[in-house]
Design brief:
With about 230 residues, the chain is mainly beta. Helix content is about 10%, strand content about 45%.
Length: about 230
């Protein structure tokens, strides 16, 4: 009889409070089951790649488990996002190969771009989309190149993207007409380890100026972590 009464009171208590605490006598009011300790599940179903694309389980700051859409989780990740520009004209001498330093940022979400050195240093491993454009203030006949470099953690620098061709001018009725655009632009994807760097450079066969502006519409770069 005593055993029956004890079981009745245990079941009554669970029904009244609708909460179960394991390892705690004070389960959190937002949780039906509050476990104070490690959780082990002996049998579980294997999730598919498609289920991961749909949603996953996450813990909030209170330790409460939630189901959240994968795209919402990715949208709230602190990913790298940078846009920098050249604000004043940038001189390049004859037959010169030199780094380009984008000297002002429009935004830099994780503070990874250095406007003094021109280096972007990846805080975390991932795949990054790198784009850049330079524009000359005048168009002179000769080769002009825009280059993107990756520097490894062992300090090995590799050219990973380039747009390089000669400016061409033709004569029409004795008047020289430039037929090449005054811009060079590149876009590429690059896999980076934490601590690796991205930098930019230019080569010109003639002396010219890269065009800068406060609005950043002429010469600029963007770096975005896509994965």
């Amino acid at each position: 009889m005593r055993k029956i009464l004890l079981l009745f009171f245990v079941m009554y208590n669970m029904l009244v409070f609708s909460q179960v605490g394991v390892g705690t006598t004070e389960p959190h009011p937002d949780a039906m089951l509050d476990i104070n300790g490690a959780l082990r599940i002996r049998s579980y179903g294997e999730g598919s790649d498609n289920s991961a694309k749909d949603s996953i389980a996450v813990l909030d700051g209170r330790g409460i488990v939630h189901r959240i859409a994968t795209k919402k989780l990715l949208a709230n990740m602190d990913k790298s996002l940078v846009k920098a520009k050249i604000t004043s004209n940038y001189s390049i001498g004859i037959l010169s190969s030199l780094p380009i330093v984008f000297d002002d940022e429009e935004f830099d979400i994780k503070n990874e771009f250095n406007t003094t050195t021109g280096y972007f240093t990846a805080e975390s491993e991932g795949i990054y989309r790198v784009t850049a454009q330079i524009k000359t203030s005048t168009l002179s006949v000769g080769t002009l190149a825009l280059r993107v470099y990756q520097t490894s953690n062992s300090n090995v620098t590799t050219l990973i993207a380039e747009e390089n061709y000669a400016n061409i001018s033709v004569s029409v009725l004795g008047i020289g007409v430039n037929v090449s655009p005054p811009t060079r632009s590149v876009t590429t994807l690059v896999q980076m380890a934490a601590g690796e760097r991205i930098s930019f450079g230019a080569y010109s066969a003639v002396a010219l100026n890269l065009l800068g502006s406060n609005g950043g519409v002429n010469s600029f770069c963007t770096i975005e972590q896509v994965r």
